[in-house]
Design goal:
The protein is α/β, with parallel strands linked by helices. Helices cover 49% and strands 11% of the residues.
Amino acid sequence: MTTTTEAPATQAEASTAPESVEFAHVDPRTLVVGVNVRADADLTPEFVGSIKQHGVLQAVRARRAEDGTLVVLEGQRRTLAAVEAARETIPVQIIDGTEDEARRIVEQLAENDHRRDMRDSHRTAAFQQLALIGLSAGQIAKRTGTDKGAVASALTVAGSKVAAAVQAKYDLPLDVAAALAEFEDDTETVKTLTAVAIKDPGRFAHEAQRARDERQRASEVAAARETLAAQNVTEVPRPDYNDAKIKRLDSLKPADDDANGTDLTVETHAACPGHAAYISSQWQRVEVVYVCTNWRKHGHGDRYSTGSTQRSGPMSEAEKAERRQVIENNKAWKSAEVVRRKFLAEFAQRKTAPTGAAAFIAAQIATRTHTLGHGADKDHELAAQWLGIKPGASAYRARSQGIAQAAEKATAGRAQHIALVLCLAACEAGTGVQSWRREGTLREYLTALESWGYTLSDVEKIARGKAPKK
């Protein structure tokens, strides 16, 4: 038995709205399951058992094609479960008329978004389908009520076979999958980051930033190596700290002090048999350092010699290990700084201050007046940046005035949060790459951030005063 009702449509909708709606009980095996935003039907034994016992309680929605077949628009999972449960018929809402493919996908996405098991990988697949039929990221965002940035990230993930596959397999959040897409051509980094995302997701942002920084350094080293090859300069390993044979050109001079004041430069030294260079990749930058590989033999002098003797004997293994650790921790701090300041920028947008804010502000005023004064001396540069204050460049202490005006207009809760941001920005402005070496000096600051949702990296835990166990 079937019933038919007229489907009302406005004049603007007439070209895409169905002409009529028919309800019927249909053999599920005769239905054609179209492309769905879900990558899998996820037919659990419990769901199939429920369909077998109770049947399909909510009608499947289908469109009648020109050849008379019924194509499922909504209800893929119910249809497939009914087939598996051997149900003879299921209720179907049959719609005649021309199908709007984009509308179908958007409606599927809206329907599935209200279900508990809707995954980010499903949204990624849906946005990809919409893009393939011609919708821009802005149109997708508008029609699905999704942030445009999230749509752009999803399309980036969809365009990466590696990121899309890992997201679907491990049910990873969109921001994590988008980060993995950055390293699609680096299998080992993808494996490492995936393991972190699964086992310790709080550390993922730190590990991803470290990977970005290492990749940038590797790119700069490769560029420096190409420069040396183009100059036909021999590349040598970075010399040991106590190596007395190799010396940087900027610390050498011609043997004859009266050589017409000629400095020993890269150009003037190019003809020397000892002319070479090494690539220094430190936390600050990648640098090409030109050297002479045997400066005494080739007749150069030590520009800064005072007659004192150099250290005798090589560095001990312990000293070498300590030096390597310093370099690694300096790199780790710079990477953590990027993640921490991104967190603080987002944290600054809160409407009210979190629990414990008043006590933290009072303690800072009582014990950290120098730190707060340092922030004020810089006209609260970081705080203004995080709070979105963009004053005119010509105004005296423009950022301070802009923050004060924002506080005057704010609610009491927001004003307290602005005060908290001023304190946090002053603390942050006082940090630097050597902060981790002053164990415990940032205890109150980093402990507070951790209590408000920030995940500390290992090097930040050292600065807080509780080094991670190895």
